[in-house]
Task: inverse folding
């Protein structure tokens, strides 16, 4: 077997160099992981402050209170990604198909259940694993299942409501973050007695936005009126 | 060997596999998949490392949830871009890779 160098093919030196680089990365990360003693981490700190966070679940407390910045920026990333997808053009037309009876049967069970599961996850996020992202993803999955039936050649959600609900999560989050400022508090520093309510408010708005954004990304183009 | 170490080790493996494919494969969908595999590896390393002290640390878990959502949105945007590139140029590859045989990447040379 002759190895002929084709144009643009990665050469052997690239492979060797990449292999060495990756081996170094693996070795470095592995050494850090195996290093003794293990750093104490932040578990104790989170446990100690949990009471003042407005959430009983440690992950929710970190997401929406202690590291609220991350979550705020994350919703901003989601929103900008959707804007990016919309900027690339209108939603592609998909082939109109006759949906399989299995999909239709499943949908008739799953789609009505999705909002219930969504509401549960949103509410449970306070004290159990759950929260806005999981809830929004379930709702978006229901929309995706509906689109997969191929009942509409150009899948889309209504134009204006979709645009508004895509940004409401980010808007409410920023609004709350700014509104709690004053009387010496910082951006995103919730007052302890209101924290639970504010977190629920932010999460509810975020759930709606996340569902619309994820579904909008699946549709893959900006909403437009039928030509 | 603790299960946390196993998760972290598997994460390193995924990171390497993903990085290898990201550099060497020309097909853009393969590159997007490779970034996803790398991301999953990083998440596994973070969660594994966060659980190694005996107490499970909620901070890396929250970071990973954030990371998953960012990865999803980046993937969606990347796929939309790949579609546009393929529509505009007829080949889902970057200009410098456009002469490579995309379907034969794994095959005999």
Result:
């Amino acid at each position: 077997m002759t190895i002929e160098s084709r144009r643009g093919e990665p050469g052997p030196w690239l492979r060797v160099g990449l292999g060495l680089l990756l081996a170094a990365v693996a070795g470095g990360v592995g050494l850090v992981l195996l290093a003794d003693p293990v750093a104490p981490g932040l578990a104790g700190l989170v446990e100690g402050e949990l009471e003042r966070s407005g959430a009983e679940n440690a992950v929710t407390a970190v997401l929406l209170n202690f590291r609220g910045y991350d979550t705020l920026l994350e919703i901003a990333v989601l929103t900008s990604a959707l804007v990016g997808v919309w900027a690339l053009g209108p939603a592609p037309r998909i082939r109109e198909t006759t949906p399989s009876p299995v999909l239709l049967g499943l949908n008739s069970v799953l789609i009505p259940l999705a909002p219930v599961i969504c509401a549960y996850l949103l509410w449970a996020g306070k004290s159990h694993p759950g929260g806005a992202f999981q809830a929004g993803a379930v709702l978006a999955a229901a929309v995706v299942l509906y689109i997969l039936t191929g009942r509409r050649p150009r899948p889309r959600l209504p134009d204006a409501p979709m645009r508004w609900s895509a940004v409401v999560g980010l808007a409410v989050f920023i609004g709350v973050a700014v509104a709690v400022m004053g009387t010496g508090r910082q951006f995103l520093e919730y007052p302890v007695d209101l924290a639970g309510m504010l977190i629920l408010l932010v999460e509810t708005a975020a759930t709606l936005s996340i569902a619309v954004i994820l579904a909008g990304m699946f549709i893959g183009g900006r909403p437009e009126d039928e030509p | 060997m603790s299960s946390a170490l196993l998760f972290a080790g598997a994460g390193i493996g995924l990171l390497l596999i993903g990085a290898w494919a990201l550099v060497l494969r020309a097909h853009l969908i393969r590159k997007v998949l490779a970034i996803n595999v790398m991301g999953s590896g990083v998440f596994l390393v973070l969660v594994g490392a966060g659980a190694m002290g005996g107490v499970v640390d909620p901070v890396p878990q929250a970071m990973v949830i954030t990371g998953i959502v960012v990865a999803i949105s980046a993937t969606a945007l990347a796929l939309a871009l790949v579609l546009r590139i393929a529509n505009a140029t007829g080949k889902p590859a970057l200009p410098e890779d456009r002469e490579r045989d995309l379907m034969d990447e794994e095959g005999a040379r």
Notes: The mean pLDDT of chain A is 83.
